[in-house]
Amino acid sequence: MEQWDQEFIDEEEEGYFEFEGRGGQFHFGYVHGNMNCRPTTRDGEPAVEWTWDGNDEMDTAQGMGWAVIKGDELHGKIYFHQGDDSEFVAKRVAVKKSGKKPN
Predict the structure, then answer these.
(1) Checking DSSP bridges between strand 31-42 and strand 23-28, what pairing results, if any?
(2) How far is CA 20 from CA 4, 58, 60, in A?
(3) Which among 49, 54, 59, 87 could disulfide-bond with 33, CB atoms 3.0 to 4.6 Å apart, if both were Cys?
(4) Partners of 12 in the β-ladder
(5) Could you report the per-residue pLDDT of 47-56, keeping only the tens digit for each?
């Protein structure tokens, strides 16, 4: 993420974005959000846009975001309502059937 270093991103657990159907969730630093996703296109490429609701250091937080898949990476930007924003690059990882990321 352009705004925060890797140590902060993985502070509570390894940072991630997870998509499932028209929803999903993410966690980085002390921020956790549930996403309401919609498929779209950006520059002619398949993309996803979302609004999110969650918390930042236990304070209510919300915002929006978008991302496109480029190879095995997800490139996008996340926005906090009336606050920070940050571009990000996430690498795709396999997910266990239990829904938990592998160790």
Answers:
(1) antiparallel
(2) 26, 24, 23
(3) 54
(4) none
(5) 999 999 999 9
